[in-house]
Structure formats: C-alpha cells, structure tokens
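Lab notes, practical 5.
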Amino acid sequence: MASDVRDAGARLIVAGARVRDVCVAVEEEIARRGAGCAFPVQSSRNDVAAHYCPSPAEETRYAEGDLAKLDIGVHIDGWVVDTAVTVNVGDLPRHRRFVDAAHAALEAAIAAVAPEAEIRGVSEAIESTVRRFGLHAVRSLCGHGVGRWQVHGPPPIPNAPDLAGGRLSTGAVVAIEPFVTDGPGVVAEHGEPQVFRLDPRREPAAGPDPEALAAVRAFHGLPFARRQLAAYAGPRLEGLLRWLREEGRLMSYAPLRETTGHPVAQAEHTVYVGPGGVEVLTR
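Output from the prediction step:
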C-alpha cells in the first residue's frame, strides 16, 4: 500500500502542481485504502531535505528544476512503514545524478542488511556508493527503527559509518533513508514548523479545549499537521497548540535545510530483518 501511494503521488509531482494538493491527495488515498498516515505527507524541495509540510493555506507550486522529495508514512493498526522518493521535476540532466545516487545508495544499504549485521557496514555501503557519484551523504540525518505507533525508534542507521554502532537484531523493522547532496551534508531547522507530536506518555489529563485535545490524542503519539485538524482551524487549534507548548508537552518539527543551500535528494524503504532473510516492505 505504501509503495502504491508513494508511486502514485510521485506521478502527481509536475511543474505547476500545488504542493499541498499532492500531499492531500496521497493522504486521502491512504485513507481510502483503509490505512492511516503514520505522519502527515511531506514534500521537501531542493535544499530543504526533510520535514516540509504544507500549511492549510499553502499555495506553493512545484517548478521545473525542483528536486522534490515525497516522504510517506503508512500504518495499519499502528504498525508503521516509512518510504520516500525524489522526483527530478522536468528531468533536468544536472539533477539526475542526485536521484540516481540516492537510489543506488539505498539498494547498496539494503544488500548489506542481514540479521546481526553491523550497522556500520550498512552505513559504509551508503557513503561509499554516494561518493562514487561525486556527492556527499547527509551526515546529520539517518535511518531509524519503526514500531507500533512509533515512527522514529532505535536503532539509528546513520548515513556515515563513523557515526554508526551496534548490530541489526533479528526481527527488527528499520527505515533506511540515504540523503545525498553536493554540499557539506549538514542540515538545520529553518522555517515555521507545521508538524507536531504529543507524546502519549505525557498527555495532559485535561486541557482548555477537550474536544480538540481528544482529536490530537487520536493520533496515538504519531506526528500530525495543522491541515489534519481542519475542523479546529483558527483560534481553537492555535490556542491548544500554544497551551501544549507552554506545558512542555508538544514536540514540533521545523523544515530541515542544507545549511549551505545545496540541493538534497532522498530515497527510503522500510525493511524487515527476518530470521530467514530480509524483506523490503515498501518495494
């Protein structure tokens, strides 16, 4: 299901298409198929590597020359998979190696996955593949474990081997996501966050707006966006978010931008490290 909606969403990314419309279309297709969004669909472009989530009134459109990432999380009964693809809008020759490098690094990393394999070997496969394309892996982003109602968990799967440690345990489910750039490969928060998360272990017993708070709780600790709470848009939602933030209960995720402004491409699959071998769940 995640594979299907990812590929269908990627086909919608063309010059002139509105970013918000693509994200909403993917979210609606996930719901139509009877699943849920593990996080709001995100589409980061060019030097923005991740976490760009259109606001409810976003009018930004894709343009020819964009390197447009489409990052999708799907869950059924809380069990999460995470997958992403990069679209070279207009198929510009100068951007092809970014897309090719991210895809090749992902396939090399998957080939290095095995029960009890050293994570360093997976990270080495990513970095060495990216270097063959004359690019750099983004060091400050990494893959991660996924679980029930959990998008980001252990173990981390760094894109650089010197940051890696530990082994892949049998039975693990991990998202592997190489990010590649021709810049130094460091990202930092930049811009207003549109994605939030309420840790279920720190949920308040009551709040200023019980109905809106119940809608936030219904995400079961998974990330959510303003546009997913349209019924409470305006002062109600902003008041609740402000109160949760002041109470120290709300996490927010601003867009992550390559610090020198260089373009970034991404590819991602979720894999199951089974006792009989590795299964790519989002192929």
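Observations recorded by the TA: The mean pLDDT is 96. The chain has two domains: 2-190+255-280, 195-253.
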